[in-house]
Amino acid sequence: METKVFKGHGGISLMADVSGDPAEPAVVLLHGGGQTRHSWREAAKALAQAGRYVVSLDLRGHGESDWAPDGDYGIGAFALDLREVLRQLPRAGATSDPDALPALVGASLGGLTSLVAVGEAEEPIARALVLVDVTPQMDPEGIDRITAFLRSAPHGFPDLDAAADAVSRFLPHRPRPHDTSGLSRNLRLRDGRYYWHWDPAFLDAEERLSPKHQLERLQAATRRVKIPTLQVRGALSEVVNDEAVKRFQSLMPHAEVLEVAGAAHMVPGDQNDVFNAAVLGFLERVARRPAQRAVETGFDARTLRNALGCFTTGVTVITTLATDGTPLGFTANSFSSVSLDPPLVLFCLDSRSSSLAALEAAGVFVVNVLHIGQQDVSNRFAKRGEDRFAQTPCEVWDTGVPVIKDSMASLECRTLQVLDGGDHRIFLGRVLRVRADPSRDPLLYLQGQYRRVHVPH
User: Fold this and answer.
1) 220 to each of 109, 133, 256, 394, 413, how far by Cα in Å?
2) Backbone angles phi, psi at 81, to 5 degrees
3) Dihedral, CA atoms, 56, 62, 67, 73, nearest 10 degrees?
4) Which helix (H) or strand (E) is 246 found in, with range?
5) From first to last of its 457 residues, what are the pLDDT tens digits of the chain?
6) Host H or E run for residue 186
7) Residue 457 included in any domain
8) Which CATH number is 192's domain given?
């Protein structure tokens, strides 16, 4: 991930985090009022690792973007900024290719910005749109509650804990974090106090910005949106109720609507895994990535590798012990169940692996099946020269082999056989003990990329 500066309307500087391959289809993420680009951190990571070029933008007056010198924070100004940013994307010049158009994902204010930018454009500027808990007509009491929170600390906070307490009171359904350091991304330290990362003049634009003062414009823009659209609504939302969704559907009949259980207005923050899976699934259907290469035939090693890469697998970390008791571990996706009675599993390990001798000598191992929140664990155990266990919470069971905590499943095994498998060795193990959390969503791997899927429970 790198930081990039885009130019918005009137030359205003807009800060963004960009990740992924610029040659791939772009996804632009626009946060809600009072937030920053960091609110998309997990979503941006998931989209980039699914093969998208991701631009997570700080809106004007927010985060590290410039404050509007004329105090213009009307919805029109935000929409003009977005159009300018889209013109600066790597594939913006390929106007004859509809696949070159980006997808837009906008939450709250970012969603209104996207609606106006797309609905009022003379030519297509996006190929897909995701609106996060926002419609042209929203509950005024919910809007007033959010506005009151934004205005509640004009003199800042003495420390991060005080800011965390304020957020916890505003979002009582969300557990208060023990580690409050993450809040520093949304606060500025000035004169010994912490202030929210936005221009105070942003709130003075409420009359021009609030949906209730822009209803006619927003409704007209919504009617004109013809591209595939997904409306993601939090079931606990204080601003988008059933009636608002019905009115939205009457304006945009082709839009899909998804209600996310357990989520309020800040859907990605409340149910990030569910949100990411929904957005990825939607984009794969309506804004698919173009084929990277032609159909391959033959039996050379590269073609075989590409063919095998079309098989989707889960991701595991295999852990064991060296002869001196030092914990060892590595990432593997060549894992399979073999038998329920007796309980047998297997995995394959490259014959050149530095862990091979220790694994054969140990005679025991643990298979840790990872969920989508453990992508960092997978990356950590796939690298060399890193103290993998120092950053990975573990426990031990009967064999003494480290078991990675909070995995989707862990299986403690005793090695029965080690078989020759060409350039790999096949470890067949008998399962001794199991722990599983089926409520998790699995981390998947396909064609050299992490993938995600949401499994309804």
Assistant:
1) 17, 19, 19, 55, 62
2) -60, -45
3) 100
4) helix 242-251
5) 899 999 999 999 999 999 998 988 899 999 998 899 999 998 998 898 888 999 999 999 999 999 999 999 999 999 999 999 999 998 776 555 777 899 999 999 999 999 999 999 999 999 999 999 999 988 888 888 888 887 888 888 998 888 888 888 877 777 787 788 777 777 878 888 988 888 888 877 654 455 556 889 999 999 999 999 999 999 989 889 999 999 999 999 999 999 998 888 888 887 887 888 889 889 988 887 765 555 667 777 777 777 877 788 999 999 999 999 999 999 999 999 999 999 999 999 999 999 999 999 999 999 999 998 888 899 899 987 677 899 899 999 999 999 999 999 999 999 999 999 999 999 999 999 999 998 888 888 887 777 766 565 5
6) none
7) no
8) 3.40.50.1820
Pair 21, 128 in one domain: yes
The answer on 356 and 229 residing in a single domain is no
The answer to whether 103 touches 26, Cβ cutoff 8 Å, is yes
CA 386 to chain centre: 25
The string of DSSP codes covering 401-414 is -EEETT-SEEEEEE
Q: Which pTM does this prediction carry?
A: 0.71
For residues 317 and 402, state if they share a domain. yes
Q: Tokens for 73?
A: 């924070």
Angle formed by the axes of helices 215-224 and 109-119, to 10°? 60
Do 352 and 265 lie in a common domain? no
| String of DSSP letters for 360-412 | HHH-EEEEEE-BGGGHHHHHHHHSSSS-TTTTS-EEE-TT--EEETT-SEEEE
Domain residue limits at 96? 2-286
At residue 42's C-alpha, the angle toward residues 41 and 46, to 5°, is 120
Contact 37, 1 (CB under 8 A): no
Q: Which of 235, 257, 286 is the last residue of a domain?
A: 286
Spatial distance between the Cα atoms of 257 and 184, rounded to a whole number of angstroms: 34
Residue 351 and residue 444 share a domain: yes
Looking at the DSSP assignment, which residues form a beta bridge with residue 329? 319
Instruction: Report the SS3 class of residue 194.
Output: strand
What's the total number of domains in the chain? 2
Between CA 90 and CA 184 the distance in angstroms is: 31
